[in-house]
Amino acid sequence: xxxxxxxxxxxxxxxxxxxxxxxxxxxxxxxxxxxxYWWVVALAVVAVWATSEAAVRHxxxxxxxxxxxxxxxxxxxxxxxxxxxFRRGVQLARASTSMPWWAPRRSKAxxxxxxxxxxxxxxxxxxxxxxxxxxxxxxxxxxxVTVNRARPLxxxxxxxxxxxxxILRGKPTAPLREVPLNPDPLQPLIDAVSxxxxxxxxxxxxxxxxxxAPKWALRARRLQLMSDARRAERREAQRAARWVRxxxxxxxxxxxxxxxxxxxxxxxxxxxxxxMPPVPRRVDPEEALGKLAEDDHLVRVQLLVMCASNTEGRxxxxxxxxxxxxxxxxxxxxxxxxxxxxxxxxxxxxxxxSRRGFERRWTLGHCQPPRPNWVRLEELTGLLKxxxxxxxxxxLAGDLxxxxxxxPELLLQGIYxxxxxRRRLIATYxxxxxxxxxxxxxxxxxxxRALAQAIGWAHADGGLMFVDPHRDSWPRALPFLAHDHLxxxxxxxxxxxxxxxxxxxxxxxxxxxxxxxxxxxxxxxADAYASVLGWDDATAPRAxxxxxxxxxxxxxxxxxxxxxxxxxxxxTIFHVRPLLTDPDFRAAALKAVEGRLDEETxxxxxxxxxxxxxxxxxxxxxPIARLAANPVTRAFLGQPAGIYNIRAAMDSRMIVWVCxxxxxPTDRLVTALLARDLLRAVRSxxxxxxxxxxxxxxxxxxxxxLTGAAPETIAAMFEDFRKYKVHVHGMTQLLAxxxxxxxxxxxxxxxxxxSTAGSQSAIAPITAEWGDxxxxxxxxxxxxxxxxxxxxxAGRRVGPVRITGPHLDDVFAHxxxxxxxxxLERAARATAGAAPLETLTDRAENQLTRxxxxxxxxxxxxxxxxxxxxxxxx
Length: 874
Description:
- By secondary structure, the protein is α+β, with helices and mostly antiparallel strands.
- Strand 12 and strand 13 (423-429) form a beta hairpin.
- It has 30 helices and 24 strands.
- Helix content is 44%, strand content 16%.
- Helix 19 crosses helix 29 (837-845) and helix 21 runs parallel beside helix 23 (711-720).
């Protein structure tokens, strides 16, 4: 037994040795086979990789087909804080995982699309898994951002397309630059695409894919970074030790050290001193890992850019602009274009072999960056939100249409200079431009801009009324309106009576020959007087009553004359005096209209009027006496059947130029009568269906002058005229000098609010409506013909934007016909029924005789008429 044990032990060790030898020989034979038939192994590896890649791509394509898109539209006052933007980033990172369990990682991403094609400054879209729609639809931004379900975008092929992929370069642990929110971090990108031209096929789009960073990759990267940091620290310690030993050896070999040893009596004692090398310091993980130290809010990103155009060179230039805009985010780390340059050629996403992968990721929304591109959500603050209120957006053709001469749907506003220096005439839609207000100092360009707009509207077959107390606008506009097709539509009502043989038109405010409603005429005339003279039920009740009763009788007399087909025998406003002071005239008038007056009015004349003292009439007769003392106003208002009819002018698209003639008390009364008559005429359009109402545009120059005569009337115009398709345009030097009702109505209802240069105190009320952006000092420094204005297009406010006012000699140079100006002047006066001042004055003086004769005849015929009525009733 004892002898057998060693034998068994020897056999076991021999068996183990043979097994080890066999294993080694097997490994050697396998390695030799692999070396000999390496291509078989390579083909197997390639086959396995291709099969797995095909399966992954199929699943990723299937997952990408279930994506959704949202469009975020910010309001003008969208101003988020850092916390709101950070919460939005957390939402995006969370939504990127809202995919089925089988979806590959490359498809688990949320994409931010910043797109510009010339139709809008920047379209901000979010695309991601369909399962994340509910999470992404409710944003931390609140009602300041509207979230809409977006439709798929289909682009037409462009002739020239360039592509680029941006990756993070620099220190991998360093963050991007912290860009402040004011100004908006998106401003460089928007500036880069601000001069896109849709008609040239320009397109620029940036896509930022966000997905959660893979844990295993982060751990591996951290181990690598820590190892690199330790090696670097050891190398630094070794380098320091070498320098320390060299310094120590150099000191001991120096003459100074040797002399010190001789003096101290330590020659040759102890040999060289011991030098302690520096110990490698401990590597701080936070310092070594930087932004990769923590897993929280760390994401992987992919940045793709595509620019296209139908014009050669524009796409390449656009890509260069976007590359410069992304440099703004560069800090310790920066966005750099992937690829390399060889002479004039660049090899990147536009060339093989990268282009195919770029196209696949661009089309399917897969996130497969060639480098980790890890960033924290705080670094993407500027891209996680739409443009804010601190962003200066360009004005594109889609925001404001381009003006075209003769287009009745457009209303000229001015000249806009784009970021690329191009100038274009801009316009608003006529149906949306309900009211306009222009403010600024004298000579700043308010009237010139209004004239250009009115002339453009006239040539587009539009009707208008231009009221200018100073008459300067008429000779300025005359050459540009002197066209044969416009002359029959133009009428000039000029009360300036200038020249050796002045001619005037005429108007009877209480005339009934144009089919007016009697009580509306009485109300309009009485209200005009009351507004100018400051009458109301508290301060002048008796004057109002007397004047209204007198007007009721005279209007009834005129109605009777028109029914008798004798409009030339109508009474005028100047016949109030004989009605109140001449018993014979009053008796004849009351007798002639006895059957047409209402009972209350007849009772007042029978019972109340006889009790009034004579001095009660002075307050009523004084303003009429002033009108009669002025030959111009007496001739204008003293005709029985005036030609002026603003209601007919509106319905027939007439171009009416009204020049009241001044700013004195008499002029203000005439202006008030005209304004109140306009209000009455517009309100009378209620008898016409809305679809059949012809648009009409009154232009009021010098609103301070006009509102001084009829403040309540002008305020009512800005409140009521929209309903009747009459749109008022007003200009004034000082908004503060307008009466409060007018000022409030102007600012409240203005579709267009414009300001030229002026004092800061005068401009402040306008800039306050814009939120002091721009500030009053910026507007006050504008050059002549420069405006800041806010406009309404497609139901939303555009601006305030800086606009150059149109100059007639430039914009309408092709319309100028100075040789036809004289013909237009004559035609406009003829259309307005103008006659020599002397002729009109004589006719006004003889009108009392004609009216008295008509009343006598009507009074004589009245008993016979009453007798016939009695017999009829019997």
